[in-house]
Amino acid sequence: MTGTAIISALALWAAGWFINARLANGAAAKTRLVKLLVPAIFGLTLLIMWELLVRLLEVSPIILPPPTMIAERFANELPTLWADFVQTIIKGAMTGYVIGMLAAFGVAVLADRSDFLTRGILPVGGFMAALPIVGIAPIFVRWLGSDWQSKAAVVAVMVFFPILVNTVAGLRDTTAMQRDLMRTYGAGYWPTLFKLRLPAAMPFIFNGLKIATTLALIGAIVAEFFGSPTVGMGFRISTSVGRLALDMVWAEIVVAALAGSTLYGLMAWIEGRVTFWHPSQRK
Amino acid sequence: DAHANDVTLQLQWVTQAQFAGYYVALDQGFYEEEGLNVTILPGGPDIAPPQVLAGGGADVMLNWMPSALAARERGLPVVNIAQPFKTSGLMLTCWKDTGIETVEDFRGKTIGVWFFGNEYPFLSWMSQAGIPTDGGDEGVTVLRQGFNVDPLLNREADCISTMTYNEYGQVLDAGVSEDELVTFMYEDQGVATLEDGIYALEENLEDPVFVDKMVRFVRASMKGWKWAEENPVEAAGIVLDNDETGAQSEAAQIRMMGEIAKLTAGSNGALDPADFQRTVDTLLAGGSDPVISAQPEGAWTSAITDAALN
Amino acid sequence: MKDKSTVLDNVVFARELDLTFQTNDGPVHALKNVNLDIAKGDFVSFIGPSGCGKTTFLRCIAGLEQPTGGEISVNGMTPDEARMARAYGYVFQAAGLYPWRTIGGNIKLPLEIMGFAKAEQAERVARVLELVDLAGFEKKFPWQLSGGMQQRASIARALAFDADILLMDEPFGALDEIVRDHLNEQLLQLWARTEKTIGFVTHSIPEAVYLSTKIVVMSPRPGRITDVIESPLPKERPLDIRDSAEFIAIAHRVRDGLRAGHDDV
Amino acid sequence: MKDKSTVLDNVVFARELDLTFQTNDGPVHALKNVNLDIAKGDFVSFIGPSGCGKTTFLRCIAGLEQPTGGEISVNGMTPDEARMARAYGYVFQAAGLYPWRTIGGNIKLPLEIMGFAKAEQAERVARVLELVDLAGFEKKFPWQLSGGMQQRASIARALAFDADILLMDEPFGALDEIVRDHLNEQLLQLWARTEKTIGFVTHSIPEAVYLSTKIVVMSPRPGRITDVIESPLPKERPLDIRDSAEFIAIAHRVRDGLRAGHDDV
Amino acid sequence: MKSVLPVLTVIGAILLFWIVSVVPMNMHLTADLAQRQDIVVTPDTPVARQEYSGIGLALRNPQLFGMTYTLDRPRLPSPHQVVVEMWNTIALQNITSRRSLVFHGWVTLSATLLGFVIGTGLGVLLAVGIVYNRAMDMSVMPWAIASQTIPILALAPMIIVMMGAIGIQGLFPKAVISAYLSFFPVVVGMVKGLRSPDGMQLDLLRTYSASPAQGFWKLRLPASVPYLFASLKIGISASLVGAIVAELPTGARAGFGARMLVGDQYGQPLVTWAALFAAALTAAALVGFFSLVERWTLRRMGMQAV
Ligand SMILES: Nc1ncnc2c1ncn2[C@@H]1O[C@H](COP(=O)(O)OP(=O)(O)OP(=O)(O)O)[C@@H](O)[C@H]1O
Ligand SMILES: Nc1ncnc2c1ncn2[C@@H]1O[C@H](COP(=O)(O)OP(=O)(O)OP(=O)(O)O)[C@@H](O)[C@H]1O
Ligand SMILES: Cc1ncc(C[n+]2csc(CCO)c2C)c(N)n1
Ligand SMILES: [Mg+2]
Ligand SMILES: [Mg+2]
Touching check for B3 and chain E: CB below 8 Å? Predict the structure, then answer.
């Protein structure tokens, strides 16, 4: 039984891989369709393998439910999933993201006015960004209560440092020649900031913003594990594990992955619009 | 050999005096005397013991009966094989100055509740009392309480869930005096459900070797419990020795042991069918969102304790 | 004449100018005892081996570098004042266009900073684009243009606000000879038409000789002026003047001056 | 003679060579109907405005680019076979030394790849370093050398495995004129000593005239050969041959050829 | 060197802000406590005090300032309390004792390091695959990004239960979670690094008709070293986050995460704070270590000016 299961899973994998290799090395490899098709086939292969293995190996659904069961749950629980999404992503993660981002920009611009501050903030910020900030979640829940405000605060702190460090580094990323050009025009601080340094900083800033999207989700959900109202993705995940409703847990994970990928994609898309001029974005 | 003598026990919380009986049995060699090789796995806020049991990561688990019966309805046939805890230590603790005196006063208040399978007794109680749990002036606003007492101290909640042996003590430790508080014991409200029973998988109980192993396990565990009741300070010390976090305080564990002893005192390990029925009735009365929908069959067995205690 | 010249007669007036950089490896004497007068309408080329201080001197004129000794004035002011008064346009070796702005946007940049009216901005952009032969490329981004076109755009940018002085640091260094010839011709025409004063750094002997009214030969370690050659060539200079005996003679003198200062490769 | 030449007589033999790149903006005709023979021991310069296909043609010879039409052979083989046979050394415009290898390590790179014995590697490195005047710099890293020295190291790298053909794509483009003169002299000496066949891309007319036995003038859009000039200059060429009338005449012919093909900047 | 003063200044500012914040943050708790000790507090009932913000209450009760710094269970401990707690748990304990943060640090660190090794290995392999195989290039990247957006905290208990089911416990499941978080930055950085050689550097090898393996060892790999180190520094801190996250929801018995959890659960904020700071120091030490190795390596490779 185990043998057949593994062999059929491997066969499936080989088949998916074969199709993808043909597509990727084929004549149409550069078309938009194939570019979407290849990762889709890859993902689909993984899902079918999952389904197959779970069913053939008779894994208990309270350990790992098959994808079809998750899909069914997802479809049946849309209103709950939506409410959780609003609580966790919209209220918690997005608010925190925006606050953290604005604060980071503000501090970056302030710090940037003084070389002294910049030299102080970059290492400290870099250090803070490397910290396991997930650990502050219980503290913030204690301070700000169980509702979304504490989640937003955790998220704000988590996204603050990567965005700050990237923005400060970005604001410094102008060539001596570009700065000298501004000096030959006798340009003051603000024109230099708006016309040279902010545009030049954009690739860095977006790098920080992209990193921050995934952190925002982690932060909001982690914080819910330490106290929440009776709604929210972290709440639902934790409660559903307790109720052995693993299909619901996975449905929430799917929501998180969809939301995260969408946010990330959105950022990447905006980045493409804003930094169209950067060599990495040019086609 | 391993199959006949190895036992892995999944606790439902981190190491504390709530589980003193098992640590004592291990430490005092009671398990060894029975020829058993016991491993105790501490739990945590997001480890579901029934899941561990289902996955084969443990042979037996401790669980609250509502959670175990719910798992049974979900298709995981767990069976209560012993019930060392006679009475429930669960209660709601409220600030007196919020004006709460009776259950009716809960309306319009915010109450902290543990979830993760521990919400069932509360939901049944509110449903029996006719109080909605979805907020508003007429109902209570439910807060998912982390496993600590901060919401009360911060006054984010008017009442929170506490165990007599743990969280209640923490509230007092924070400097609050008992006369600032009002407490509602589930036991007094007639909605008590059985806590900390020992459960195994039904299919395993068809295996005589396993049954024999469980008999010895329960016998040794109960010996541990009775020893702990008699020697609370030593028992607390043993628990501390087994606490790998090193963060537990001796005073708190001694106090906890004292409170725990009150809960285990009435039990020799055998489940009283009346207690079981009271638990089931409470859960079935759960109104619109019942924890279980039908009288469970075969959810407990006296076979193990009968053999262990004669 | 040199001795009697004064600050006010000259667009640029440098006396015993000295500049030492403090670096990790100790001080670098980039300019030593530099004396130079540039009159209005002069086209002055600076030539010399790498590291002889050409760029540094140009930057001193522009107020981008602070001399550590001697005096220098631009239009009778300190270079810093002249910079704030927007007395000059500066062209760097690389075009250095901002990639996030179109060609038009790049040329508009100094105009925006200096607060020109919108309408005037557009008009000036159109005019200088015409001047450097780039009409029609206003909406393109820098990377969509060839190197030569980018360099012309950067010249247009320096011309847009009509400063009297144009300082150019190896503006054609990265271009091929043909394009370079062409731009040299255009630059001469522009200079003739506008009567600007031009300071021009180059590595190329023919370029220096072809363009200048005055060739300043410099030498490194410490950076100093070793020769100043006033060109006898007429203002009108067709490209094939470069095959004339006069031209070759000047080129020879420049090359000798260079080789003298160029002890090592 | 041209018509009778055959594949085997020549080191490089190209007939009606065509190469079209497919780009997003449509096809670019980089080479059209290119015919050229290079005999053993020739020093052939390619000159022409930017984009005329000099690099592309050199890369076709090197088997780095696949022509879309016509035929080309190197040493009687296809360019790909010649590449596999390691028939040539290639010098790029920038030195392109690997920064994580010392100068010695960089020169050793092709030797390692081609599987020379350790002892021979060391011996060859020492020899070519001598040849390009860099003895003693073996242990230095590229960034510790000046641009000119880096470029010489990259030539040494191409010489190390003693291919008969040396292909050089604007090797001195980034250097200043004096350094360039010096390297030109050295290159001529090297060529005279080793009798290699050299293909050399340049933007500089004097450089092309000074170095070559044969100057190939190219023109863009589509890239094609407009003139092939056999140089009458002797093999022995002191630097001041550049002031000779003969030299100037050839330079004129090259410049005219260039200007003809150079309709737009 | 010249950054020392600015860094100290910034740290000083943060400390100052922290110290000032202690008063309003702890004011309500302090007032409740003071009242029980018969100190006069305004206003005089807890319910009435709820109407005031921490700052408002502090302004009304300046006599309580001192007390806010010495609470047993503060909402915000004062810096010296954290320092004392850390001193007690780091310096004054035998490092094999469970009360020692060094012991817990080692528990978390061992999972971190194992996870980091697994994650980095996996990341490098994936990156090589992506760079050398078109099909992998097109199919893996979107899913690698998606994998990082799913809440690891939800997966952590499942991973631990599933691995427990096949008898693997303790270090390894935590390491798996660490690896899950650390492989991604390594993939991203290494793909960039392996692709960093420019056309000319690649063409050079073609003129030597070098084999793909030679191209990897002699060009792509050395060229990617600076990128590798950048990734390693992100990866190791992601790894530490992973180990802590793995310890949080599962109540893992020891380690920084377990200390944070237990501190939260049993109302011992100092335990949580000390664990948090110890984790911070560990992260700094790890990143600092890789910075040193990076500098040493790049210098030996000649890729960084001395
Ligand atoms: N900011 C600086 N700090 C330290 N040393 C400098 C600085 N700028 C220039 N130098 C040094 O001063 C000397 C003169 O440099 P400068 O750039 O003026 O030379 P240049 O003649 O323009 O050379 P090139 O032809 O290479 O551009 C050189 O030795 C250079 O290394
Ligand atoms: N890989 C490529 N893909 C598309 N077009 C190319 C490619 N390589 C070269 N071209 C185009 O082919 C033409 C000839 O290019 P090539 O690089 O051979 O010119 P060149 O004579 O070497 O110019 P330069 O002097 O600027 O180096 C140009 O129009 C160029 O844009
Ligand atoms: C996995 C799991 N976690 C927590 C509880 C709830 N609970 C049971 S005993 C106890 C003691 C607290 O001191 C708590 C919180 C549970 N039943 N199962
Ligand atoms: Mg210069
Ligand atoms: Mg080229």
Answer: no
Asked, for residue D211, whether it belongs to a domain, the answer is yes
CA-to-CA separations, E163 to B49, E151, E239, in angstroms, rounded: 14, 18, 19
Q: How far apart are the CA of B118 and the centre of ligand 3, in A?
A: 7
Query: What is the C-alpha separation between E215 and D223, in angstroms, rounded?
Result: 32
pLDDT bin (cut points 50, 70, 90) of residue C1 is very low
Helix (H) or strand (E) segment spanning residue C226: strand C224-230
% residues pLDDT > 70 (chain E): 98
Alpha helices in chain A (DSSP H): 2-25, 32-56, 67-76, 78-85, 95-113, 115-129, 137-144, 148-172, 176-184, 189-192, 198-224, 233-242, 246-274
Using a threshold of 3 CB pairs under 8 A, tell whether chains C and D touch.
Answer: yes
pLDDT of residue E98: 82
Residue A230 and residue B115: Cα distance in Å, rounded?
9
So where are chain E's domains? 4-76, 101-300
User: Does any domain span residue C25?
Assistant: yes
3-state SS string for C163-185: CCEEEEECCCCCCCHHHHHHHHH
Helices marked H in E150-198: 152-165, 171-194
Burial of D6 (0-12, 13-18, 19+ CB in 10 A): exposed
What does the alpha-carbon distance between residue B69 and residue C175 come to, in Å, rounded to a whole number? 83
Which pLDDT tens digit goes with each residue over C222-234?
889 998 999 888 8
Report yes or no: C154 and C107 within 8 Å, Cβ to Cβ: no
Instruction: Measure Cα distances from B219 to A227, B4, B215, D96 in Å.
Output: 39, 16, 6, 79
How many independent structural domains does chain D possess?
A: 1
**Atom 28 (ligand 1) nearest CA:** C51
Ligand 1 pocket member C22 (CB < 6 A): no
pLDDT tens-digit readout, A49-65: 899 888 888 888 888 89
Element (H, E) at B185: strand B181-185
Helices vs strands, H then E, count in chain B = 14, 10
Q: Is D96 domain-assigned?
A: no
Query: In this structure, what DSSP letter does residue A136 have?
Result: G
For the residues B23-35, what does the mean pLDDT come to? Answer: 92
CATH number at residue D33: 3.40.50.300
Question: Has residue D264 got a pLDDT over 60?
Answer: no
What is the model's pLDDT at position C7? 62
Task: Please report, to the nearest 10 degrees, the dihedral formed by the alpha carbons of residues B218, B224, B228, B234 taken in order.
Answer: -150
Q: Which residues surround ligand 4, an ion (CB under 5 A)?
A: C 55
Q: E101-300: which CATH number, 2.40.30.130, 3.40.1790.10, 1.10.3720.10, 1.20.1250.20?
A: 1.10.3720.10
Percent of chain E with pLDDT over 90: 26
pLDDT tens digit sequence for E191-219:
988 988 888 888 888 888 888 999 999 99
Residue indicated by tokens 């996204």: A159
CA D40 to chain centre: 14
| Edge-to-edge strands, sheet with D197-202 | D88-91, D165-169, D197-202, D43-47, D214-219, D224-230
Per residue in E105-126, pLDDT tens?
Answer: 999 999 999 999 999 999 999 9
CA-nearest residue of chain A to E158?
Answer: A63
Domain containing C255 equals 4-87+163-264
Residue C141 within a domain:
no
Any idea which residue has 């509502």 for tokens? B66
Cβ <8 Å between B144 and A239:
yes
Q: Which tens digits make up the pLDDT trace of B133-146?
A: 887 788 899 888 87
Say which residues have a Cβ less than 8 Å from residue A11's Cβ, sequence separation at least 6: none
For strands D214-219 and D43-47, give the pairing.
parallel
- The answer to whether C and E touch (≥3 CB pairs < 8 Å) is no
Q: Identify the closest residue of chain D to C149 by CA–CA distance.
A: D265
In angstroms, the separation between the Cα of residue D47 and the nearest Cα of chain E is: 21
